[in-house]
UniProtKB/TrEMBL annotation:
InterPro entries: Bact_polysacc_biosynth/exp, P-loop_NTPase. Residues 537-546 have a biased composition (Low complexity). It comes from Streptomyces nitrosporeus. This is Lipopolysaccharide biosynthesis protein. Keywords: Membrane, Transmembrane, Transmembrane helix. The chain crosses the membrane at residues 27-47. Residues 384-403, 505-585 are annotated as: Disordered. Residues 507-516, 526-536 have a biased composition (Basic residues). It comes from the Bacteria.
């Protein structure tokens, strides 16, 4: 089954953005933590800060003019509003306002008074907006009024001082002219024409200077108007509790998204199904839904219609029409690492789905370390001689004598070759008996499904790949790493097989994973205990015990412990050829 896999760069940008946003939503704990921190910060700011009040007044600035009603007269002539704003917040204004407030009983220093003042200029206007913030409405109003009045007084005083200085300059220029005129008038005498001309010029110059002095005295020195008087505010200024909570929630959400993005960048797990397909080099066969009813038993098929059963049927149909699988009709089901519960459920349900399609299905449990499939199937697995599977001698070894007929209500039946703990797992998996069982997939209408341990935990799956060829990886995308998938692809390709696809199952949660790990550890200890009993002395077991009956190397109840020749780790049961009955030498 080969499908073109487009790289991430070839995807459209909206799809990539949606995919990245879904990946960020995977880390809900970080998002919730960020929002909670933001809300707490907003609540702390709202509850810990003191209420402040702001009183605002507006002053319209104007320049001194002789006739404000004359044609072409402009109020903004010679005004630099930026400089006026700096004057409004200067120490001179603050000192004058503090002196005025002290006369009214409000003693405050100039610098402290200016800390609560904010002067702004609305665009395209000659207006200065005085905003004063204080802890009480009364102080805010009185200090805003004092500062605005102080600014107008300072500006008027500076204008009047400028006029007076200019008038004094004109008078200083006129004084020698007047003295010269008086001297000419006293001298009199000849050359009357020259004297008259000089006197006339002096009179004209003196008259011009007098005119300028008179014009300066007639100037309107009004510095501006208090268009909006400061009033006592009735409500505190600043953002209230709802606004701060909303702002904190937004900031917290942004913080959570940032933390999620950082976590996503350094997360080695598979971040999306597209990345899983690219890392594994195989298509996605299906995604199992999360159903509560799935915990009632291993087989979802046969318990009535459900989403889980339909997904297994869809995967089986997809495999049935896959040219790579139809050529060999053999499938190896395995997980990347960890427990094998999801792979066991997938193998059993796929066997039931193929049996429902009318195929003769043989399910081989190649997990010889912690076999549990027969126990999970429960009453559905009945010990019986298969009707169609190849027969062999019953020698007590695996896989001989380990077959059972599994009935699936409403679907049919399939043959189960249950796993059994053995002393030498690699030798058992590569034996001729296993080869004969896997060769049964060559029969018309037959399907062989092999359940192997996790491929990255043990080499058991690798030992079977060359005879099964097609591999299906069952994994949880939140638990498997990208490096693990790439390694699985390389291992299977190097062993002569191919990955047919991946089957995703939902995460079972942290508690379920711990419980499965404990159960798997208990099964592994039980398997080692049974192997130890088979290797132990006659005094450690009684004749006819179940452990002795299930042993692949055991003989009669009075046989001594392991016989070794050469290699002390090689037992008699392992040295006996596969297919030889247990009672034969």
């Amino acid at each position: 089954m080969t499908h073109p896999i487009r790289t991430l760069d070839e995807q459209d940008e909206p799809a990539l953005l949606r995919d990245q946003f879904r990946q960020l939503l995977r880390y809900r704990a970080l998002l919730v933590t960020g929002v909670v921190l933001g809300l707490l910060g907003g609540a702390v700011l709202a509850l810990s800060g003191e209420d402040t009040y702001t009183s605002t007044g507006e002053v319209q600035v104007r320049s001194a003019t002789a006739d404000p009603f004359a044609t072409g007269a402009s109020a903004d002539k010679g005004i630099n509003i930026g400089s006026e704003r700096q004057t409004a917040v200067s120490d001179t204004v603050g000192t004058l306002a503090a002196r005025t407030l002290a006369e009214k009983g409000d003693t405050v220093e100039a610098r402290e008074l200016l800390r609560g003042l904010q002067v702004t200029n609305p665009p395209n206007t000659l207006t200065l907006r005085f905003a004063y913030t204080d802890l009480t409405p009364r102080l805010a109003q009185s200090r805003a009024t004092a500062l605005a009045d102080a600014y107008l007084k300072i500006r008027r005083q500076r204008t009047e001082d400028s006029i007076e200085n200019m008038a004094d300059g004109y008078r200083a220029q006129m004084k020698p002219l007047v003295e010269q005129r008086d001297q000419l008038e006293r001298s009199g005498g000849g050359q009357a024409d020259d004297t008259d001309n000089a006197r006339a010029n002096l009179v004209v110059a003196i008259s011009e200077l007098n005119r300028k002095i008179v014009e300066l005295g007639a100037l309107d020195t009004t510095p501006g108007y208090l268009n909006k008087k400061p009033v006592a505010p009735t409500a505190p200024t600043g953002a209230g509790l709802p606004m701060l909570l909303a702002l904190g929630g937004v900031v917290g959400l942004a913080l959570g998204l940032l933390l999620s993005w950082v976590r996503l960048v350094f997360d080695p797990a598979v971040r999306s199904t597209r990345e899983l397909v690219r890392s594994l080099g195989a298509p996605l066969l299906g995604t199992l839904p999360r159903e509560r009813g799935a915990a009632g038993g291993l087989l979802a098929i046969g318990r009535g219609g459900s989403r889980l059963a339909e997904e297994y049927r869809a995967v089986a149909f997809r495999l049935a029409y896959d040219p790579a699988f139809a050529r060999a009709r053999r499938l190896l089901v395995t997980a990347p690492r960890g427990d094998n519960a999801a792979a066991s459920a997938a193998a059993a349900n796929l066997a039931a789905a193929f049996a429902e399609m009318g195929r003769e299905v043989l399910l081989v449990e190649a997990d010889l370390r912690t076999p549990s499939l027969a126990g999970q199937l429960g009453p559905a697995a009945r010990d019986a001689r298969p009707r169609w599977a190849a027969s062999g001698e019953e020698d007590g070894n695996w896989p001989s004598g380990s077959r059972a007929d599994v009935d699936v209500p409403g679907a049919g039946a399939f043959i189960l070759v249950a796993g059994r703990p053995v002393d030498n797992v690699p030798r058992a998996l590569t034996s001729a008996a296993v080869g004969r069982i896997l060769a049964e997939g060559d029969r018309p209408g037959a399907v062989v499904i092999v359940l192997a341990p996790p491929v990255l935990s043990y080499a058991d799956a690798v030992a079977l790949v060359d005879r099964v060829e097609g591999v299906m990886v069952v994994c949880d995308p939140r638990e498997v790493h990208r490096n693990d998938l790439e390694r699985i692809r390389e291992i299977i390709s190097a062993s002569g097989g191919s990955v047919l696809g991946a089957l995703l199952h939902p995460s079972r949660g942290r508690l379920a994973r711990r419980r499965a790990s404990r159960e798997q550890g208990g099964s592994r200890r039980d398997g080692r205990r049974k192997q130890g009993r088979r290797r132990g002395s006659p005094g450690t077991r009684s004749p006819g015990s179940p452990e002795e009956a299930d042993s692949s190397g055991g003989g009669g109840g009075g046989r001594p412990g392991p016989e070794t020749t050469g290699d002390p780790s090689e037992t008699l049961g392992l040295r006996r050829p596969f297919g030889t009955p247990a009672g034969r030498p």
